[in-house]
Design brief:
The complex is a heterodimer of chains A (72) and B (593).
Chain A: H1 8-33, H2 46-64
Helix pairs in contact in A: 1-2
Chain B: H1 2-24, H2 32-52, H3 59-64, H4 71-80, H5 85-98, H6 111-127, H7 133-141, H8 143-176, H9 180-218, H10 220-229, H11 231-244, H12 272-290, H13 292-299, H14 304-320, H15 326-335, H16 363-371, H17 376-411, H18 418-439, H19 449-473, H20 479-502, H21 507-510, H22 518-542, H23 574-591
Helix pairs in contact in B: 1-8, 2-9, 2-17, 4-9, 4-13, 4-14, 5-15, 5-17, 6-12, 6-14, 6-23, 7-8, 8-9, 8-17, 8-18, 8-19, 8-20, 9-17, 9-18, 10-11, 10-15, 12-19, 12-22, 13-17, 14-23, 17-18, 19-20, 19-22, 20-22
Classes of the chains: A mainly alpha (72), B mainly alpha (593).
């Protein structure tokens, strides 16, 4: 969406980054403290890798579509 | 009275289920991190609404997003507007109940129609520069057919919003113990605010955002579910063992076409002709090619190539949606267990009891709380809320456009200033939300949520398909033909529904078999209404005066000169991706045959 000063992809990047950071941070905290949540397959530490993945994807969009930067 | 009964039943049922949930487990309690995740989402969507307010000053901007959307944004929005919480929960529940047969609604029930819209119909919609599907009918058939279509569409959209609201409020009640009214009012206000402020552009932006969020929140469930089940083959082995031990009702849960040779061979009680012609043609083509809710997104594309490409892009994502909807429902058959370790049995809404506290429609929330730690649970719940809000935003933005352009402008106030219609559109958005809230409690009258939706589709959408196809591809179709075809097609659909309601044995005539079940009835009723609308349009047209060729320019095949498009590399060509989509569609059906 290049006709708008802020691209929709920037909003998506921002949201993914915030969510990813929150979930990743929680996952790391659990990993360090060894305090596993009461869910099935908690030993796989999904918040760490899922949160990390979301952060990476979010940062990609955040940077690529930042206001004032033509992504083309 | 009927509505009050539904309200009472809904409130009591949800309350009882929430109580059982709390009594059996505290799994659904949100941590502060979950609340934060949900709050961030609401802040973001409202921010987008305010941010885009300055770009919704003219009617073209407010109702059509300035026709500036790229193919990707229009395509994702096109799919997202259809991906409500109803969709997520209803079809996950249907997959638990009927097996992979439910995936027909995503593949044969969507892909051919989406590709047909993009490659065949979109040029006519786009070239005539209509603002809506009833607007197209006005150009092709005149005011009568347009008003019939606009009024039935407006009625259907507020009912659909009500269905969405009901689904989301019950989820929040059952999973989180939230008050029904709280869920409905907060989410509705958010939708009303961002759509009223930013118009279609705001709705589209939020739909794309919600689409990403739905994937981010829901994708983890099937991934972890497959890990726990031991992969697809492990799932099938466990399911077979459960059936052999009598723990799961016997049936073919993993094949899509094997059991469709006879009505009584599958739990849906449907024959392959119903799936192919009823779902794959009458309902699917009706919905994806004439329902303004989805077509509006594509009409907002910035050029014809993007408008054609958008449904093709959407078709790939639509093909992938079963991974986050159907697969969790299927996996629920083998991984969901009671606290005592026994296999959990989900039941129909009207069979919920202390022994079986959860219904089919709750399979997705149950899977979420099974795997999602704090933060991820908030993300999953946000995905459900986002699904609800995207569905609702789609309904109210489409309602606003149809109300303003196809009801208010021609019937109430012609020739007003452009600003006046934008104001009417903003108020129509709020009115649509308010009326939707009022109808939220009137929509639960069928055995399952999706059955009801199918009934609605066949009332209004299928007859419209017959009339639009005749108008778009037959130059001889006349104004009177279109009007009577639409009216009698709709009345036929309602009449057949009422007939079976009053005389249940009539099912053998409507659905061609006494073994047919509710969904099969919907498929065949849609098919009959398309056939009747086509026949009536045809016969009446033969006896009435057709339009001249000059009058049909831009709206009918054979009378329209389509603009030539600049050549592009093959990987940017819509036909190339259309062929790829067809191959993927065929491969999926063959693999799960």
């Amino acid at each position: 969406m290049h006709s708008s000063p802020i691209s929709i992809w920037f909003f998506i990047g921002l949201l993914l980054t915030i969510y990813g950071a929150l979930i990743f941070g929680y996952g790391i905290f659990d990993l360090v403290t060894g305090n596993l949540p009461h869910v099935v397959l908690a030993n796989l530490h999904a918040p760490v890798w899922w949160g990390g993945l979301m952060t990476a994807l979010g940062l990609f969009y955040l940077i690529k579509f930042r206001p004032g930067f033509d992504a083309k | 009275m009927h509505g009050l009964d539904s309200l009472s039943m809904l409130a009591q049922g949800a309350g009882a289920k929430a109580g059982m949930f709390l009594a059996t487990a505290s799994l659904a309690k949100l941590a502060p991190l979950d609340i934060l995740v949900i709050a961030v989402y609401f802040v973001m969507v409202i921010w987008i609404g305010f941010y885009l307010k300055g770009q919704a000053n003219t009617s073209e901007e407010f109702f059509m997003a300035g026709r500036e959307m790229t193919a990707w944004i229009a395509g994702l929005s096109f799919v997202s507007a259809n991906l409500g919480s109803l969709e997520l929960m209803g079809w996950a529940g249907s997959a638990y109940q009927y097996g992979i047969l439910a995936a027909h609604w995503y593949w044969v029930g969507a892909i051919p129609a989406m590709l047909f819209l993009g490659m065949v119909m979109m040029p006519f919609y786009y070239v005539c520069k209509t603002h809506s599907v009833p607007g197209y009918l006005k150009l092709r058939y005149g005011q009568g057919a347009s008003v019939v279509s606009a009024v039935s569409f407006a009625f259907m959209t507020v009912l659909m919003s009500g269905v969405n609201m009901f689904a989301m409020a019950v989820v929040m009640k059952v999973v989180l113990g939230w008050d029904l009214n709280f869920s409905i009012i907060v989410s509705s206000l958010a939708v009303a605010l961002y759509v009223a402020l930013g118009g279609l552009r705001s709705a589209i932006f939020n739909e794309v955002l919600q689409f990403v969020l739905i994937w981010g929140g829901a994708l983890l469930v099937p991934i972890l579910g497959l890990v726990e089940a031991g992969g697809w083959s492990g799932f099938k082995a466990k399911l077979a063992a459960n059936m052999a031990a009598g723990l799961t009702p016997k049936g073919d849960y993993t094949h899509m076409w094997h059991s469709l040779g006879h009505f009584s061979n599958n739990p849906m009680g449907i024959h392959w002709t119903g799936i192919v012609f009823g779902l794959g043609f009458a309902i699917s083509f009706g919905y994806w090619t004439t329902d303004f809710l989805v077509v509006q997104r594509v009409l907002a594309a910035h050029n014809l190539r993007s408008a054609r490409m958008a449904p093709v892009i959407g078709s790939f994502f639509k093909m992938a949606v079963p991974f986050i909807v159907i697969l969790p429902g299927l996996l629920g058959l083998v991984v969901l267990h009671n606290p005592d370790g026994s296999l959990m049995h989900l039941v129909g809404e009207n069979q919920v009891s202390a022994a079986h506290p959860y219904s089919y429609n709750e399979v997705l929330p149950l899977m979420l709380v099974r795997y999602c730690a704090p933060g991820l649970l908030g993300l999953g719940v946000t995905a459900l809320i986002a699904g609800f809000m995207s569905g609702m935003a789609g309904n109210v933005s489409a309602f606003s456009a149809v109300w303003t352009y196809d009801i208010y402008q021609p019937l109430i106030k012609k020739n007003a200033r452009d600003e006046h219609y934008v104001t009417v559109g903003r108020w129509a958005t709020i009115l649509g939300v308010v009326v939707s809230i009022g109808t939220a409690y009137l929509v639960m009258n069928a055995a399952g949520i999706m059955d009801y939706v199918q009934a609605l589709f066949s009332f209004f959408i299928s007859p419209l398909l017959g009339v639009v196809l005749m108008g778009m591809f037959w130059k001889r179709a006349t104004k009177a033909g279109g009007f009577w075809g639409l009216l009698i097609g709709t009345l036929t659909s309602i009449g057949l529904w009422a007939w079976v309601k009053i005389v249940p044995s009539a099912l053998r005539y409507v659905a061609l078999s006494p073994d047919a079940k509710a969904m099969a009835e919907d498929m065949y009723r849609a098919l009959w209404s398309v056939i009747v609308s086509v026949l009536v349009t045809f016969v009446v047209s033969l006896f009435t005066e057709p339009k001249t060729l000059a009058e049909l320019n831009g709206v009918v095949y054979g009378a329209t000169k389509l603009p030539t498009e600049e050549p592009v590399p093959f990987y940017k060509n819509e036909w190339f991706w259309c062929v790829i989509a067809i191959i993927a569609f065929l491969a999926l059906n063959i693999y799960f045959w």
